[in-house]
Design brief:
Deoxyribonuclease I, Chain A; eight-stranded mixed beta sheet; six-stranded mixed beta sheet; 387 residues; alpha+beta
Length: 387
Amino acid sequence: MNRVRAAAVAALAALAMVGTPAAAWATPAAAGPLDVNVGTAREESGARSLTVATVDAGLSRDGEGSLAADLASGTDAQALQLTAAVQAERPDVLVITGVDVDASGDVLASLRDDYFASDRGGESGVRYEYSYAAQTNVGQPSGTDLDGDGVVGGAGDAYGDGDFAGQRSLLVLSTQQIDTANVRTFNSMLWKELPGNRLSGSGLGSVAAESTPLQSTSVWDLPIRVGDQTVHVVATSTASGSSTADTLRREDQLRFLRGYVAGSESLAAVADDKGREGALPVGSRAVVAGSLGSEAASTAKGQLLDGAVLSDPSTAALAGLGSTWWGTAMARLQADSAATRVDGDGAGTRSDYVAPTPSLPVSSSGSAVATVHDGETHRLVWLTVSL
């Protein structure tokens, strides 16, 4: 758990400042058995609030169906690590990226029922009564040579890098009702349809440029009902890879997110997978959660996370310190504290974000170690917003 460290950063800063698929796979699913109603962060706070978390779980396998088989035992080491973090932090809404998702829903059901809802290690289970998983662009064949290796086929030629459909995708679990009738997904929106896109610099051939969707995974706008109020949790995972096309696509994905949550008129003609056009209504309360890429902290400043459209709680306390020696020192401490992935040599990067619109005041935030896989530590990132 990283609450103490996060609090220390905030305290020090305060002192210093004196073929494009679109079909949904699943609808909200009933929770697995749990004998008691376990309090969540929202309920325990004494005031109406919502805790949203995200984690790149690294729960991916080489073969289709392999993850579901591994989870079936109820003793998968990675899933148990993730469970410990989830049960310790107890988010109301959990966005998991980097997870293989299957059309049968076996992975989602196993994580929800066999792991998160089961009492383990002295922690009570967390009951997620609502869930959402849908088809993404990962592993969907493009029919063209996207990676330029001279061969059509394989993970690099899928619309989202993956060996099979649903690999390294995302799923969402919630203690609060998901308004499924008003869920919006953006698989089929083409890259060329984003106003002001950077597709021309990608180096993609004409056929690929005409058919490539903007999203390498997807964007899901999930309206979460908390009493009589609605908060839009916008879940996503941006493009992986370091090619010019990957980088430009990722930057345009961030630009789309900014425009969408800001209610930009520039997206008025952009349609979701059901043909509904436009961005969120101006003034909507939203939280973007997921993997935005290691460059998000630099490429998105002044764009996505500038405080006008979405806030970054981990850096808000450092605003105003500027380039002073104290500001530089604090920024280094903050960057180390905010790292969401740390490799075996101790080098950290920040790739995973939970960022609310300014209309949602943040009451607390933090992170906790979630999984260790192939020598890399992944952290679960969370924040609580007041409603």
